[in-house]
Prior knowledge:
Elements: E1 7-9, H1 13-16, E2 24-29, E3 34-41, E4 46-56, E5 75-84, E6 95-99, H2 104-108, E7 117-119, E8 135-137, H3 139-144, E9 155-159, E10 164-166, H4 167-189, H5 193-198, E11 200-206, E12 211-212, H6 213-225, E13 230-242, E14 245-256, E15 261-272, E16 275-285
Parallel strand pairs: 2-9, 7-8, 11-16
Antiparallel strand pairs: 1-10, 2-3, 3-4, 4-8, 5-6, 5-9, 6-7, 11-12, 13-14, 14-15, 15-16
Amino acid sequence: MNLKSENIPFLFVNLINSEVKPEYVILVEKKSQTAQIIKVRYPGLDYEIVKTLPVSTGSNLGDKQIQGDLKTPEGFYMIESYITENDLPDRYGVGAYVLNYPNKMDKIFRKTGSGIWLHGTDEPELVSYDTRGCVRFNNPDLISLESYIELEKTPVIIQETLDYKPSEHVIELGALFQRLLNDWKTAWENLDSDKYLELYHPNFFYANLNMDIKTWSNHKKEKFSNTKFVKINCSDISYLYTRSYLLIRFKQLYFSDKFDDFGLKSLLWIKENEEWKILYEDWKPIRMN
């Protein structure tokens, strides 16, 4: 097998800490109008290019921002479901794989739109930059994807130009992401308000209670001073990195001398001046059985 390890696609960093290790990844490069099927070997993220296929992406250049802008989104997406030919309008060919656009990070940044698919065509040949935002394949090529796709497991990385970095750098960055979550969790469990709040950005916003950094700081200092102990369990952790942002999502089980709760926590980190800080946080309760 022709496995590579010196330089790897940069967004492979999202695979390092994932609890679900996909065997195949689809890389779409808008500039070259191609899609690569990549086989990945863990833990070193060595990879093999299985095949390269022509595609067509959005008729307008740039990262998708709003409904109807005719741009293909850029980032790290998962294939959620498949739509058969019988359930599609004619222009989509033999079928369509549905991407989870907008993902959680897209929603935080208020990107809009929906229906971003990998789909076939009813035209005799592909025309570059000719979709409404989807990624279009020739029908035989779309059919061939079935051998490499597992729904809700196979990721699709879309970039204008695929970015490659030394594997050591990518693996170190993945380890850093784990340390960020551990530092946050440890500071909270130690009821160390100084170390805890140092991790938050001056423009931080807490969605659930509509708090900025000032009100959040006062709120947490009061909570910490009136609490004897805290224990936090994080499970089903996912890391989503793109550009200078990192989204960590996990199920949070919280114990303290005051109360217990269980929910889905999202922490959006931003890198500025070589430091990572939490820019946004939200939490949604999950009913405990």
